C-alpha cells in the first residue's frame, strides 16, 4: 500500500483506529488519496484525540498539539485545561480573556543580539499616560495605556494587526520601568549628597 500523502486521510484513519471519535454518531467516508476541500464534523458531535470520551468539548486533545499557522480563539482560553504541551508556530489571536496558572516570556540571552541598555527611561515614562477606561464591547472597567500613546514613545512595543488595530506588549514595559526607577534613584542619591554637603 502506498504511504498516505494526505494529512486528512491520516487523521481520519487515526481517529477511527483508536476509537476516539465519540459522543454522537459520526459517519466518515474516506478516499485515497483524500480529495481536496473543506471537511466538517456535524456540530452535534464532539471529537476526542488521545481520550476515550471527549466529554462536553467539541475538540478534546490529550497530549502534545502542534499547530503551524495562526490560532484564533473567540471566547475565553483557559490554559490549564490543556493536557500536555501546545506548540504553535505562528501567531495566536484571542478575542476574549486568557487565564493561565503560569505565563513566561521567551527571554534567553542566547536568542538576542545587539543588546544595549535603555537610555532616558525616566523621560520616556513621563511621556506615557496611564488611563482608566471602559471596554466598548462589554462596558467592563479597566486601566492601562493606549497603543497610540505608547507608539509615540516606544514604538517597538506596539504591533499593528491586519485589521489596523494596535496592541501593546505590556510585559515589556517592565524593562522601561526598571531603568526609570534606577535613574530616579540616582537623582535622589545625588540630591542627598548635595544636601549632606550643604549641611556641613
List keywords for this structure.
200 residues, three-stranded mixed sheet, elongated, disordered N terminus
Structural overview:
The protein is of the alpha/beta class and 200 residues long. Helix content is 26%, strand content 22%. The radius of gyration is 26 Å and the shape is elongated.
**Low-confidence spans: pLDDT under 50, at least 5 residues?**
1-5, 20-25
Radius of gyration in whole Å, from Cα?
26 Å
First-last Cα distance: 95 Å
Strands side by side in the biggest sheet = 1-2-3
What is the compact description of this entry?
This protein is an alpha/beta fold and 200 residues long. Helix content is 26%, strand content 22%.
Summarize the SSE layout with pairings.
Elements: H1 7-18, E1 21-22, E2 46-49, E3 59-61, E4 65-68, E5 71-74, E6 77-78, E7 86-89, E8 92-95, E9 98-99, H2 121-126, E10 131-134, E11 141-144, H3 147-153, E12 158-160, E13 166-168, H4 173-199
Parallel strand pairs: 2-3, 4-7, 5-8, 6-9
Antiparallel strand pairs: 1-2, 10-11, 12-13
Amino acid at each position: 500500500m502506498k504511504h498516505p500523502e494526505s494529512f486528512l486521510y491520516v487523521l481520519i484513519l487515526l481517529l477511527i483506529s483508536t476509537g476516539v471519535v465519540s459522543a454522537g454518531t459520526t459517519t466518515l467516508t474516506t478516499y485515497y488519496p483524500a480529495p481536496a476541500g473543506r471537511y466538517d464534523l456535524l456540530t452535534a458531535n464532539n471529537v476526542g484525540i488521545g481520550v476515550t470520551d471527549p466529554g462536553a468539548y467539541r475538540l478534546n486533545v490529550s497530549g502534545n498539539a502542534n499547530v503551524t499557522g495562526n490560532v484564533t480563539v473567540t471566547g475565553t482560553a483557559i490554559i490549564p485545561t490543556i493536557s500536555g504541551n501546545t506548540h504553535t508556530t505562528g501567531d495566536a489571536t484571542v478575542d476574549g480573556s486568557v487565564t493561565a496558572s503560569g505565563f513566561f516570556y521567551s527571554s534567553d540571552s542566547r536568542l538576542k543580539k545587539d543588546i544595549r541598555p535603555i537610555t532616558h527611561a525616566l523621560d520616556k515614562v513621563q511621556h506615557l499616560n496611564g488611563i482608566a477606561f471602559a471596554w466598548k464591547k462589554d462596558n467592563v472597567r479597566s486601566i492601562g495605556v493606549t497603543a497610540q500613546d505608547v507608539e509615540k514613545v516606544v514604538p517597538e512595543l506596539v504591533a499593528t494587526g491586519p485589521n489596523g488595530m494596535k496592541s501593546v506588549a505590556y510585559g515589556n514595559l517592565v524593562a522601561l520601568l526598571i531603568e526609570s526607577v534606577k535613574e530616579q534613584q540616582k537623582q535622589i542619591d545625588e540630591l542627598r549628597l548635595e544636601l549632606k554637603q550643604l549641611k556641613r
